[in-house]
TrEMBL record:
Pfam families: E1-E2_ATPase, Hemerythrin, Hydrolase. It catalyses: Zn(2+)(in) + ATP + H2O = Zn(2+)(out) + ADP + phosphate + H(+). The chain crosses the membrane at residues 23-41, 48-68, 80-102, 241-260, 266-292. It comes from Microbulbifer pacificus. Residues 636-769 form the Hemerythrin-like domain. Belongs to the cation transport ATPase (P-type) (TC 3.A.3) family. Type IB subfamily. Keywords: ATP-binding, Cell membrane, Membrane, Metal-binding, Nucleotide-binding, Translocase, Transmembrane, Transmembrane helix. InterPro entries: ATPase_P-typ_cyto_dom_N, ATPase_P-typ_P_site, ATPase_P-typ_TM_dom_sf, ATPase_P-typ_transduc_dom_A_sf, ATPase_P-type_domA, Cation_Transport_ATPase_IB, HAD-like_sf, HAD_sf. Residues 126-224 form the P-type ATPase A domain. This is P-type Zn(2+) transporter. GO terms for cellular component: plasma membrane. Its EC number is 7.2.2.12. It is found in: Cell membrane; Membrane. GO terms for molecular function: ATP binding; ATP hydrolysis activity; cadmium ion transmembrane transporter activity; metal ion binding; P-type zinc transporter activity.
Amino acid sequence: MPAASKPAERDATYLTRHLHKSLAVIIALLLAAGGAARLLNASPPLPWIVAVLLMLVVASVESVQALARRKAGVDVLALLTMAGALLLEQYLAGAVIAFMFASGRALEEYSSGRAQQALSALLARSPRVAHRRVRSGIEEIAAEQVRIGDQLIVKSGEAVPVDGLLLSATAELDESAVTGESLSRRRMRGDQLMSGVINAGGPLDLQALKTAQESTYAGIVRMVTEAQAAKAPFTRLADRYALWFIPAALLVAGLAWAISGDVLRALAVLVVATPCPLILAAPVAIIASISLAARRGILIKNGAALEQLANAKNLVFDKTGTLTTGRQQLVGIETPPGFHPDEVLRLAASLDQVSQHNTAQSLVAEARRRDLVLSIPEQAQETPGEGLRGQVGGKSVAVGSLTLVLNGAAIDHWSETRLRYMALRGLSGAFVAIDGQMAGVLLLADQIRLDTPRALRELHRAGVERTVMLSGDRQDVAETVALALGFDAVLAERSPADKVAAVKAECESGTTAMVGDGINDAPALAAADVGIAMGARGAGASAEAADVVLLVDRLDRLPEGLHISRRGRQIALQSVMAGMGLSALAMLIAALGYLPPVIGALVQEGIDVAVIFNALRALRPPAQHRSAAVMPVELADRLRLQHSELQPVLDRLEQACNTLNGGLHLSATNEINAVSRVIRDELLPHEREDEEQLYPTLAAMVRGFDPMGAMSHTHREIFRLARRFEQLADDLAGVQPDELQLQELRRLLFSLIAIVRLHFAQEEELYFTLSDSQS
């Protein structure tokens, strides 16, 4: 639609809505005035006649407009009933019908407005102005005039106009309009802010990374506009239904007249024959469901997508960025002599602040967690898929692939050794060069999302029959993840073209949804019956190709969206079946002569009101997804931080395994004793505190009989393994261990590391579930 026509269409919609409200009031007054005239023995009661004529004119215009748009024009029935009432001198019945027609249209506008409230709110909050820093001070400009690199200031209560880099030390932001999260979030210097979020704190400084047209909120506005304009198959069915309903209603009315010889019976049949339950209830329920989903950060672009999602039987997931965080965690820093690991990370993260790549953002977050002071980069240039170059604090820095960092130079022995080490451990890495010299490699590993296991269990519980994991990774890596999460099938080493073929194959066996993240997933999303994109970022290709976009980067919103869509479709069908059944019953009663036209109009209005308000139930969240979080988000974050602080302990145990794997040597005894102290003084106190203080509190939150029993059992196994290691270490005090003893010590350490990591994952998932916080 041309931009110039949009304000005119909005004005027309506004006038139409108020026209129906005004008509309902005017006709109600005429109806009352006609009653007063009848009491005064006025004949005929002119106010009733005026009411019918007024509504006849409006209904005639709307019917002609509907027929011009090739719609069924069910208002023809209302025209016939009002015209018939005038011809038969049933002025009261005609006036009542006119009032019911006008009030029904007003009710339709009201219910549609309520149903689209969340979508309209998203559009209303679209950023319109920006404040740009210039030499002379600050100038106010339209958001569309912002250019990449502009220095902006966002005042308190204003919307962030474009996607940008936060330059202020901290910022307090209300992101509810984009993500559906009600709590404000604190952002730190160097974080990337999405357009459309509201500044809930003091003024903040921002560097524009995108134009307004390319930013997050502009993409959301495009998708919301599409959601408002599109029609669901259920709604299109209503239009087709009216094509045969009108002749059927006329036939029943004609038979009632022919058999009884009473023309008023025919009039009464037409009065109750309007198919409002299907024409109104189905669209209201579908739009209400889309609106509810939008409030929860789930943007369903149109009614067809909602119905396809409700019917989904197969779910195909891309692995990276969907099942995993896509933001690889730093697990180690390797540096050649002359470079300090923290300084390498600081410079790399400083440069990565201007990149939107997930790995770059993970490095920035890790640098902040270590309290490293980041600098604002200059002359940054990003090569997609390779990395960045730029100036940081007067130094030339390159971070990314080995090819980019070497810049044409031959690979050195240090880098070649690190590549082999990364391949053996299944790690990826970002190489770093400083002033043309190889400075190190940042070792990275992707992490499964905290909400992934729960989301998959909930999807199966909701009726999804088959789950498939798609990945470009090696078969062994993909199978390990798939088995851990309980997928029905895994397809590894797939190119983007292979993913499209796999999705099409799944579609042949049933309605299939594809969940993905990233540009390379866009073709597969488009190939699926319903494409679902994770964590929309403006006009990203995956978000544009998808039918459903999870605006908040959480996989557990997917089963919630599935429940909302299925419930909305069920309510629409329920409203239609109940309403049409009641209308058919009313037509039969009217045909038999037991329902006069005036009473018939009241009955039909009652049916309309009942089915519309039933359809509006779709605005309420499903019972199983109403918020039941009981743990404060801050507490959950603190508990997870404790696990993060224990990561060096696990790294130390893994280092000991490697050391003891070297065979018999003089330092083995010292290493065993050192590891025993680490377990006793650092690991076990944390586990005992959890068992004695935290678990009783969590048990009250989870409820049920012994809800923490399985977690406590894991604690006991940790204590047992730790005690066994300590006993062996004591037995070897001052004695050189033999190969069998070293083998047993390594076995205990490997077992302890594995169970502690699993235990941490279980606890973190529980904290996430209880707090309902964002990962």
